[in-house]
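Run log // design_07
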């Protein structure tokens, strides 16, 4: 029997679902989960890395339950009373594993996603295990109409600072304006427009950070506060829920369905 790529992933995902989950129930009210991914790899022990088969099972469950994955800008178009079965899918850092394992599956389902890249690392390696998307690959993804390329700063995603949180944030803000302007110049040169989505590295930001980002032309600012988008959420403070490699499908379902 000949089986398609999506067919294989669907079967593998459905198998995991049948083992892990009882029958689903619908989602209600205006509480939209914005999912935050990073890297996709089968054998990695890194906490933030999700195995491809794990991701396939999650996407198949979303699709089977009738969820739509929308763009960040489409949040504003949702009905005020009830957002329905809607999620946002985001992936930080711009790993090439997004193309290798996530994009073609998302395309099969018609799911939209946002990938945020660090300008300095585009088309290079952060280390030998983590190649990053090139601008050619970013253009390919953007031209699909399903993927929005956003900013993860130009070069402010170094190792976590050992200084106090207050000192680290003050140093971050001191460099932020020049960094974001540099990213915008690069983004316009490579993609022909300005970026309007920014994801904060390590979730580090405050009101001053938001003001700097707005001045640099960013409208949608993604954090990692572990909450849902509510009816009155500010688009300059869009919270996200982290999806990690140790998360079972039951936990994923509970998170999406606002039960956790």
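design_07 sequence
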């Amino acid at each position: 029997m000949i089986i398609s790529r999506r067919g294989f992933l669907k079967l593998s995902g459905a198998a995991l679902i049948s083992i892990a989950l009882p029958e689903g129930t619908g989602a209600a009210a205006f509480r939209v989960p914005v999912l935050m991914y990073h890297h996709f790899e089968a054998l990695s022990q890194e906490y933030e890395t999700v195995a491809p088969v794990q991701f396939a099972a999650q996407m198949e469950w979303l699709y089977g339950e009738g969820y739509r994955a929308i763009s960040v800008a489409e949040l504003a178009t949702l009905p005020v009373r009830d957002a329905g079965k809607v999620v946002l899918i985001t992936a930080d850092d711009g790993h090439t594993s997004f193309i290798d394992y996530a994009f073609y599956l998302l395309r099969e389902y018609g799911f939209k996603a946002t990938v945020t890249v660090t300008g300095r690392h585009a088309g290079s390696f952060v280390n030998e295990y983590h190649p990053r998307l090139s601008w050619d690959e970013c253009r390919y993804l953007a031209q699909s109409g399903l993927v929005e390329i956003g900013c993860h700063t130009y070069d402010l995603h170094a190792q976590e600072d050992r200084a106090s949180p207050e000192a680290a944030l003050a140093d971050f803000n001191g460099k932020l304006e020049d960094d974001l302007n540099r990213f915008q110049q690069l983004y316009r040169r490579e993609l022909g427009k300005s970026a309007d989505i920014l994801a904060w590295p390590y979730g580090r930001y405050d009101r001053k950070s938001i003001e700097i980002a707005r001045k640099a032309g960013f409208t949608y600012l993604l954090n990692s506060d572990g909450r849902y988008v509510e009816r009155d959420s500010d688009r300059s403070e869009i919270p996200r829920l982290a999806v990690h490699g140790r998360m079972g499908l039951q936990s994923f379902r509970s998170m999406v369905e606002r039960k956790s």
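The mean pLDDT is 88.
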